[in-house]
Design brief:
The complex is a heterodimer of chains A (about 180) and B (about 500).
Chain A lengths: L2 H18 L6 H16 L1 E2 L4 H4 L5 E6 L2 H14 L2 E2 L2 E8 L10 E4 L7 H8 L5 E4 L4 H4 L3 E6 L2 E7 H7 L2 E2 L1 H4 L3 E3 L2
Parallel strand pairs in A: 2-4, 2-5, 5-6, 6-7, 8-10
Antiparallel strand pairs in A: 1-9, 3-4, 7-8
Chain B lengths: L1 H4 L3 H57 L4 H9 L7 E8 L4 E6 L15 E5 L2 E10 L2 E11 L1 H53 L13 H80 L4 H44 L5 E3 L1 H11 L1 H7 L2 E4 L5 E3 L1 H17 L8 E9 L2 E8 L30 H11 L3 E7 L3 E9 L3
Parallel strand pairs in B: 7-9
Antiparallel strand pairs in B: 1-2, 1-5, 3-4, 4-5, 6-8, 9-10, 10-12, 11-12
Helix pairs in contact in B: 2-3, 2-4, 5-6, 6-10, 7-9, 9-10
The chains are: A alpha/beta (about 180), B alpha+beta (about 500).
Chain lengths: ~180, ~500
């Protein structure tokens, strides 16, 4: 794919975002978010169920309330064919709580602030790594919430929620995180 | 090697045990030391690599989340402070730029061989370890550690010193043990040697060695005891034989003395009655002459009857009595002479033989002249002996030579001598009638005469010669050819 096409794609996403009246995320922000999600995946392990060990089954990344980010990721993984945990990556745009079930990752955007309790009620005690980038999300029960400070990408982890989820999270990740509610 | 051969068995055993022990200790400890030192080095390498892995892993998330986490990396690396031999630690990011560092001394250090993925090498006093950092099978950076070998060398030094001390202690222990246990072998041998010394110095064959075991030394003891027994047995037998011989010798001496006494007494005492017989025979002869003179006055008839008795029978008988008495007297005087030779003391001195032979020659001057013989005397070396007795020997021999000359040819007597080792052999040779081989030994026998009717004498001359020479511990022998002459040899000691 030529650089021009990428720019075109990014321009469309930018326009769409603005059209949806979002907080004004730039393509750089999306790429940072996408990179962070990928890095978190290095340090998290899901319970070794038969489905989980079956490498032909995809690694599912659910996006709630951020269609431009969904589009960005979907396109990115379809083009790059990058794998996470040695599995093909499938990006799902989640609009209903019932669609969350198979997800490994669940990115919850700021738009979902109100319906967050319902989402968390569903994901609680399930090996679904919920990620957000909205201040206060971690305290409310989202497993990882990232934020920027002085151009440094930082993140916080709700350790209690991590423990309840049954996920294994590496100490290497935890030692860089600001831990909340533990 | 001769030095070792001259060492005592005890020292030889100690030396051998010590040599073997030292060799074994040195070889053993050298192998152990080489192994241990290589393990120490490997340990340092392994530990440094493990520390690199641990620190690299600890820094991995910081590398993953990138810029802004340098401080955390430095903090993480500073934990290596607790490992005394790690001097420097550097973390490089994917591009090879320094991401974090730790220097024990505080001074910056320029890591060598950058860009190497996996490299471990020892250079000078430092061990350099490069190790890549992976996350999710992807290399995200590199960690480099530099470890000082100072502590390793110190540890090796201490180890070598300990090994050295242990080796010295073990060698000392080996020496003590060798000293103690060599006795098992050396003591019985030394005991045997001391018993042997006792036997050879004191010639005491009654001692025995008591064996401890049935090993080779035990067998040696048995053999030694057996040998001593044999020697003792032979010694006893020899002593018994010696005693018997001495007893016999004494008995023989006594018998000899007795015999000589008998000869002496007989020859001496028998002479008195013989003198009477001779004297009264003469008296009878004179009486008979008187009777013959008286016979003239007796009537012719009676005279005719008595005359043959008085003039033939009685004088004949008297002549036989007188001749026999004279012969007996001569024999007795010979016996007495022989007996005196046996009883007289031998006084040894150096004899000038030229002088002695000249004296003898002078004594025989008349007989020599009468026989018309010629005597030739060589220069004679001196010898040791009793001068009057040796004079007697030469007189007897010269007398014999003159007596048995062949009347048909001019007599020739030669006296010569030859020095042989420790004795001088004198020879008196004549060209007389000679002696037949079968009589050559008999001539020395007592009263033996070759021609009793033709020559005078008692047949004692050569017997006396032999007796005197025997008493001088010399030798006498004769060589002869019948009709050609005889040679008598006398061997006498040349020195005192």
């Amino acid at each position: 794919m030529s650089k021009r096409k990428i720019f075109l794609g990014l321009a469309i996403l930018l326009l769409c975002g603005r059209e949806f009246g979002l907080r004004g995320d730039t393509p750089k922000d999306y790429s940072i978010k996408a990179l962070m999600l990928k890095k978190f995946a290095y340090y998290a392990d899901w319970p070794k169920t038969p489905d989980e060990q079956d490498k032909s089954k995809p690694f599912i990344l659910g996006i709630m309330g951020d269609p431009p980010f969904f589009s960005y990721l979907d396109k990115y993984y379809k083009e790059k064919k990058e794998k996470i945990k040695d599995k093909n990556v499938e990006i799902r745009n989640i609009s209903n709580v019932n669609e969350i079930q198979d997800c490994h990752f669940l990115f919850i955007s700021e738009q979902m602030w109100k319906s967050l309790p319902d989402i968390l009620a569903y994901t609680r005690s399930k090996p679904i790594l919920t990620v957000g980038n909205t201040q206060g999300y971690a305290e409310r029960g989202v497993l990882i919430n990232f934020y920027s400070e002085e151009e440094k990408n930082l993140f916080e982890v709700n350790f209690r929620a991590v423990r309840e989820s049954g996920l294994f999270m590496s100490s290497n990740l935890l030692k860089l995180a600001r831990l909340v509610d533990y | 090697m001769k030095f070792i051969m001259n060492l005592s068995i005890k020292n030889k055993l100690i030396l051998i045990v010590l040599f073997v022990s030292i060799l074994a200790i040195i070889i053993g400890f050298t192998i152990i030391t080489i192994q241990d030192i290589s393990i120490f080095k490997k340990d340092l390498v392994d530990m440094t690599r493990m520390n690199a892995s641990t620190a690299g892993d600890a820094c991995s998330s910081m590398l993953v989340f990138g810029a802004g986490y340098e401080k955390e990396v430095n903090q993480e690396l500073r934990r290596l402070r607790g490992i005394p031999y790690i001097e420097n630690a550097y973390v490089f990011d994917e591009k090879g730029d320094i991401f974090g560092k730790y220097n024990r001394s505080g001074e910056d250090f320029r890591p060598i061989s950058l860009g190497q993925d996996r490299l471990v090498f020892l250079q000078g006093e430092y061990l350099h370890v490069h190790q890549p950092i992976y996350v999710d099978q992807k290399k995200i950076g590199t960690i480099y550690l530099r470890a000082s070998t100072y502590l390793l060398n110190k540890k090796i030094g201490n180890y070598l010193m300990t090994i050295g001390l242990v080796m010295i202690a073990m060698i000392a222990l080996s020496y003590l043990l060798a000293l103690k246990f060599q006795r098992v072998i050396s003591r019985p041998i030394l005991k045997l040697a001391s018993v042997m010394d006792k036997v050879s110095q004191q010639t005491d064959y009654t001692v025995r060695v008591h064996k401890q075991g049935n090993d080779e030394i035990g067998r040696l003891y048995d053999g030694f005891n057996n040998m001593l027994e044999q020697i003792q047995l032979r010694e006893t037998e020899r002593d018994a034989a010696q005693t018997a011989r001495e007893r016999l010798f004494i008995e023989l001496q006594e018998k000899n003395k007795e015999l000589e006494q008998v000869v002496y007494v007989t020859s001496h005492d028998l002479r008195s009655p013989l003198v009477n017989i001779q004297g009264f025979s003469k008296e009878l002869e004179y009486s008979l002459k008187d009777l013959v003179d008286i016979l003239e006055a007796i009537p012719p008839k009676t005279r005719e009857k008595i005359q043959p008795i008085l003039e033939e029978d009685i004088p004949d008988s008297l002549r036989y009595i007188i001749t026999s008495a004279f012969k007996m007297d001569s024999l007795l005087s010979g016996l007495l002479k022989l007996s005196r030779v046996g009883r007289s003391e031998v006084i040894m001195s150096k004899i000038d033989m030229n002088n002695l032979v000249q004296e003898v020659q002078q004594a025989f001057e008349f007989q020599v002249k009468e026989a018309g013989a010629e005597i030739k005397v060589d220069d004679l070396p001196p010898c040791f002996g009793d001068e009057p007795q040796i004079n007697q020997v030469f007189s007897n021999l010269l007398n014999n030579a003159l007596k048995y000359l062949e009347p048909q040819r001019p007599g020739l007597i030669a006296i010569s001598a030859e020095k042989q080792n420790h004795e001088v052999v004198y020879c008196i040779a004549d060209n007389g009638i000679g002696i037949a081989q079968e009589y050559l030994q008999k001539v020395f026998e007592i009263f033996h005469r070759l021609n009793p009717t033709e020559t005078g004498g008692e047949g004692l001359g050569l017997t006396i010669v032999q007796k005197i020479i025997n008493r001088h511990r010399g030798r006498v022998w004769a060589e002869s050819r019948l009709g050609e002459g005889s040679r008598f040899f006398i061997a006498l000691p040349a020195h005192a």
